[in-house]
Specification:
CATH superfamily of the largest domain: Butyryl-CoA Dehydrogenase, subunit A, domain 2
Distance between the termini: 48 Å
Strand order of the largest sheet: 5-6-2-1-3-4-7
CATH class of the largest domain: Mainly Beta
Number of domains: 2
Radius of gyration: 21 Å
Length: 345
């Protein structure tokens, strides 16, 4: 299945949304049902299973993986807030794609004609291909989620960035959209910090996967007859410096993967508390930085040809550069908060 994502990764990047073939492949695999309850036809996968799968998909196509992760977050928000009392239309297809954002940039208006939602939500990854959008709203003074059919939203084409281009993270707009009361509900995160860490991991996992994908490119180069230009070596593997760079890039990649899995295991343990937040966030940001550092070494090894538009390395580099700077992976704020926590302890 990942062969399909790899085959269409370039098309996904160029057209600014996942290729239809890639989306069909992940649907057939049940990946959009990872975070739907078993009682509703999903698998309700734990954090470790989810991030392993996202990393596997990200190794083939980071943008498609990112949108699968975004769907998992949106469904987790809905399910954790409503439990088994899911709206029938939402539960009807456990493998429907969803998008969303927790930023409460919308509002709820209740009147004699019913409940209406108005707002504008940026960076809705996968919105053009999603059936549902779980978006943050303020219902009076209550931070809530509005679960909206994407077909009822106006989509503004605002996503034009260097990397993760294929996520199609555009803006959704609702202007007085009439919804049933069951489609607006207070946010409930029963695991609180564990849930927030899980949400961050869904951003990290595609980045880790993309880094593994880049390493595949470099390992393929080492297995070929390509030689370091302007050197006496006949193959890359003959160069001690190249071998050292390869080893360091591999070490950083695997360290990022181990860090991701350790964080997922912590989430699955059920022991994560708010006091753990600074440490967990710091470790997540460290893993993202390891990915960026590994890509820089790989680009050094490949040289300027790695930036050719036909070379997947430059696309993976762009995806890692952008994806690793998601707010959940912000290095300077996590360092700041970790320092504050340590100084107060």
């Amino acid at each position: 299945m990942t062969e399909i994502l790899s085959a269409y990764a370039e098309q996904t990047d160029k057209q600014g949304r996942p290729a239809a073939q890639s989306l069909e492949a992940v649907r057939q695999a049940g990946d959009f049902a990872l975070r739907m309850p078993v009682a509703h036809g999903g698998s309700w996968a734990d954090a470790t299973t989810t991030v392993r799968r996202l990393a596997e998909l990200g190794r083939a196509c980071p943008s498609t993986s990112w949108n699968v992760g975004t769907s998992a977050v949106a469904k987790t928000l809905v399910v954790n807030s409503l439990g088994d009392a899911l709206p029938a239309a939402f539960a009807a297809d456990p493998n429907a794609q969803a998008c969303g954002t927790g930023m409460p940039t919308g509002r709820v208006e209740r009147g004699t004609d019913g409940t209406r939602v108005t707002g504008k939500w940026k960076s809705l990854s996968g919105v053009e291909d999603s059936a549902w959008a779980a978006v943050g709203v303020m219902d009076g003074d209550t931070f809530s989620i509005a679960l909206l059919p994407v077909s009822d939203l106006k989509i503004e084409q605002t996503w034009d960035v260097a990397g993760m281009r294929g996520t199609g993270s555009h803006t959704g707009v609702a202007d007085g959209l009439l919804v049933g009361d069951e489609y607006v509900f207070p946010v409930n995160l029963p695991g609180s910090q564990a849930d927030l860490t899980f949400f961050g991991l869904t951003a990290l996992a595609p980045v880790v996967g993309a880094t593994r994908g880049a390493l595949d490119v470099i390992e393929g180069m080492f297995a070929s007859d390509r030689k370091p230009y302007m050197s006496q070596y006949s193959r890359m593997a003959e160069s001690p410096g190249a071998r050292h760079w390869l080893g360091e890039a591999t070490r950083l990649t695997f360290r990022a993967e181990r860090g991701m899995l350790a964080l997922a295991a912590a989430v699955d343990s059920g022991t994560v508390t708010q006091a753990d937040a600074p440490q967990l966030s710091s470790e997540m940001a460290d893993a993202a930085r390891d990915c960026r550092a590994a890509l820089e070494l790989m680009l050094d090894l490949h040289g300027t040809s790695g930036f050719a538009s036909s070379n997947p390395l430059q696309r993976l580099w762009r995806d890692v550069a952008v994806g690793s700077r998601h707010p959940h992976l912000n290095p300077y704020l996590t360092a700041e908060r970790f320092g504050e926590a340590r100084a107060a302890s």
